[in-house]
Write a structure and sequence with these properties.
eight-stranded mixed sheet; 4 helices; 15 strands; mainly beta; globular
Length: about 270
């Protein structure tokens, strides 16, 4: 009887042990620790190294900046834009869904050695080796290599946009690929029945104006989530990334949350 009793107890213990285990109850994954590196050049110093035709970076250069772009709404594609106190720069990525890994306001470090410094429309950018397309001086950094070159640091508060007016738009050399905010602007009356872009187009230009009739181009991808939304009819503030195509300044909206054209339209001063 004693042996049988011990056997029963042992069986019950085994049953209890297995029934108490939940193989779907995994430990929460440990969050990745943010990287912290020491940059040895500013973004402006890196831009100043650019040579026409593009050039492979052979020095051990590290730059740092805060993310000002997001591809969540589709208006920015395969591109990460970072900004420090000296300027901003585009990083061409083979990854999509970048907003999942590099969030607005987060510090990012770029290990530049082995990357290609090039330009498109005289706007300097970082890519991967010479492009096979002669129209471009850089190619996209392969998805598998991107995280080893572009390292995510601490999350933080977004950069405060530089408030400017259309009479005094900063120059390409000082403000290309930086975040700005315009006050008291509106879209042209002739464009009010238009949408931001055209479905699946490479991009469409619309025009903002201020009370003095000064204008600036707003360029929107046909692949953006708001491409077929009608342009807002009112006036107000407009936050976007300022970039240059050769000598032409243009704005790229990150999210419609940055467009506050809710006030009545104004009359242009003669």
């Amino acid at each position: 009887m004693t042996s049988r009793f011990k056997y029963i107890i042992a069986c019950l213990m085994v049953i209890f042990t297995f029934s108490s285990c939940d193989y779907n109850d995994f430990d929460d994954p440990q969050p990745e620790q943010p990287v912290e590196l020491t940059p040895n050049k500013t973004i402006r110093e890196l831009i100043n190294m650019y040579k026409k035709g593009g050039d492979l970076i052979t020095e051990e250069i590290i730059i740092a900046g805060k993310v000002i772009s997001s591809d969540r709404d589709g208006n920015i594609y395969k591109t990460l834009i970072i900004q420090d106190e000296t300027g901003g720069i585009k990083i061409k990525s083979g990854l999509t869904g970048l907003y999942n890994f590099y969030q607005i306001g987060q510090t990012v470090y770029v290990k530049c050695k082995g990357l290609q410094l090039g330009a498109y429309g005289n706007s300097v950018e970082i890519g991967y080796q010479p492009s096979t397309d002669s129209s471009y001086e850089t190619d996209y950094i392969p998805a598998g290599l991107f995280p080893s070159y572009v390292l995510a640091g601490k999350k933080g508060t977004p950069i405060t946009p530089n408030v400017v007016d259309l009479n005094n738009i900063p120059s390409r050399t000082s403000a290309d690929n930086t975040l700005i905010k315009l006050e008291n602007v509106q879209f042209l009356e002739s464009e009010l029945n238009f949408t931001w872009s055209i479905d699946e187009s490479s991009g469409v230009n619309r025009t903002l104006q201020d009370i003095n009739g000064k204008t600036i181009t707003v360029r929107t991808s046909g692949y953006s989530k708001f491409a077929l939304n009608q342009l807002p009819e009112g006036s107000g503030s407009f936050t976007a990334i300022l970039s240059y195509f050769n000598t032409t300044p243009q704005l790229t909206v990150i999210s419609l949350n940055d467009v506050k054209l809710d006030n009545p339209r104004f009359t242009i001063n003669n």
